[in-house]
Amino acid sequence: xxxxGHLDHAGAVPALLAGDVRPPVHWTPPTRDLxxxxxxxxxKLHGGTPQCPFTGEDLRRVTEVSETxxxxxxxxxxxxxxxxxxxxxxxxxxxxxxxxxxxRCTSGNRTQSDDGDTRLLYTGDFYAGxxxxxxxTPSTARxxxxxxxxxxxxxxxxxxxxxxxxxxxxxRVRTTLWEGGTVVVPAFAVGRTQxxxxxxxxxxxxCYVDGMGVEVTSLxxxxxxxxxxxxxxARAASxxxxxxxxxxxxxxxxxxxxxxxxxxGMLGGGPAVTYLPEIHANPINALLxxxxxVEGTPGRRILETGSAEVGxxxxxxxxxxxxxxxxxxxxxxxLLEFLEAYxxxxxxxxxxxxxxxxxxxLESRGHDARAPAVGDTVEV
Length: 380
Hints:
Blueprint: H1 7-10, E1 25-27, H2 29-46, H3 56-65, E2 66-68, E3 75-77, E4 80-86, E5 94-99, E6 103-106, E7 109-112, E8 119-122, E9 147-150, H4 162-178, E10 183-186, H5 192-202, E11 207-210, H6 212-221, H7 230-238, E12 240-242, H8 249-254, E13 259-262, H9 272-279, E14 286-289, H10 298-305, E15 307-310, E16 313-316, E17 320-323, H11 332-339, E18 347-349, H12 355-364, E19 369-370
Helix pairs in contact: 2-3, 5-7
């Protein structure tokens, strides 16, 4: 079962099919499409190197064993009853509920035996609490479970209110455009690009979109039932000019007073390395980060020092630089609110930089929580 299409969750799936065993791969339709597309890109960029753990043949095998399921459509896998629930992270993201009840699925119908002994909830990455994103709604699923395996990415962070983040972002964009400047917004192709398109459209701000976000936007629009507001997404697409990068198009766009949403989100590659050299030296222009910048990336170095190696150039950035937290993860309050529904349920903490600390914090609040190390066995 694959919770969602981001590479840190789905990028090694083809490698699991490199041997003689061909297990089925279960996911939602958007997760399948996103994962396959991102894996294709990984193969293109790193195929045949240690950075790519799979081959083109492995990737082809994934399509042969792929099985898709919508939310709340139970199915059988390895003798267990499985159900995907909306996780509110990106389109198609899912909590995975595993029940050891036996289940038979035939022609879309199911016949379930008596309840089994254990129901395990794996949250995957999720967003809960508050208004949530424009792209997808926050997760409201709180299924009964005997053990919860939870992500903890922002367990020690309280996000600024999303409405306030959006307000500050729009204010900076409008100020820059009014002064005649250009706004470059590095953004992740999956989720963040589309969220920013929706923000721009909601505030009548025209924008360009460049990079893989163009293709991902088209892909996600083929699954309207997984979007918060498919009509709003259609309007945002109409409000957006998509870039194909031909014949010096990017440099001409960079000379305009406009907004450019472009991969890569941390300036590690993509069209962003073409736009930034064109706008970095003018203080009227703006470089607006839309998500977390990992330590050691060009984006992080620019935020901390004002300069970085971008592409094959060292840039001292004079343009206005700001960071806006458009995170699609639950923060500390969101995690605690979600886990409050599991006060009497064992909790396993993973996927975070402070797993042990968060598990101890949960213990102090009366939860039964632990943060096992790699290789540990947990019995429930």
